[in-house]
Write a structure and sequence with these properties.
Blueprint (H helix, E strand, L loop, with lengths): L14 H23 L7 H20 L7 H14 L3 E2 L4 H9 L2 H13 L2 H10 L6 H21 L4 E2 H24 L1 H6 L5
Parallel strand pairs: 1-2
Helix pairs in contact: 1-2, 2-6, 5-8, 6-8, 7-8
Length: about 200
């Protein structure tokens, strides 16, 4: 996901403020999860990991889907206009990454490059940890690509920057998370297999 608005004023967002919002959203989500699922009644490693994954995913989506929301017809018209004009759409692979590395301030680069990678590492880690079918590399790769594509498509409708490089960075983060899981599975197979067992 892109941390920038698609046009007009570039809003400065510090990394600390971005992280604070991320954890604040998790703090809101977790009590709701406990009220709905009552995890203490069927507690297990799987339930704990599922709760962490759901909180992370909820917080991520709330952050990246902040934008200009309106009536569905107006949002569709805005998206069609952007597709016709190319406003706020960047489809040149590595263009944004190269520009950020050359010209961006350190903090902007942290958010727009490293932030886009780091935010998706938990996604790529928890998928194979919680569901055995995603331990297959091709299935994991597909899921790590599908979510960023879906987010960038949604951002087209809410007047956020739609950038192919964000998809690439998010995908890389997801695959790094999958690599972290693979390494953990090799070292602690009993732990990772236990996380599959539902309470």
């Amino acid at each position: 996901p892109d941390c920038r608005p698609c046009a007009g004023v570039v809003r400065h967002r510090s990394m600390s403020a971005y992280i604070n919002r991320y954890f604040l959203l998790m703090a809101v989500f977790l009590p709701l999860w406990c009220i709905i699922r009552r995890p203490w009644k069927h507690w297990s490693l799987h339930e704990g990991c599922l709760m962490a994954f759901a909180a992370l995913l909820f917080s991520l989506l709330c952050l990246v889907l902040r934008g200009t929301w309106a009536a569905p017809g107006d949002m569709l018209a805005s998206a069609l206009h952007r597709l016709r004009t190319g406003e706020g759409i960047q489809l040149r692979l590595f263009h944004t990454i190269t520009r950020q590395l050359r010209y961006a301030r350190h903090e902007e680069m942290l958010i727009n490059i490293w932030g886009n990678i780091l935010l998706f590492i938990p996604y790529g880690f928890f998928l194979p940890l919680l569901w055995k079918r995603y331990r297959h590399p091709l299935r994991l790769s597909l899921m790590c690509l599908l979510l960023p594509l879906s987010i960038e498509t949604c951002q087209l409708f809410i007047h956020r920057m739609t950038d192919v490089d964000d998809v690439l960075l998010n995908f890389a983060g997801g695959m790094i998370g999958g690599g972290v899981f693979a390494g953990m599975h090799m070292v602690f197979p009993k732990f990772t297999d236990k996380a599959l067992v539902r309470g």
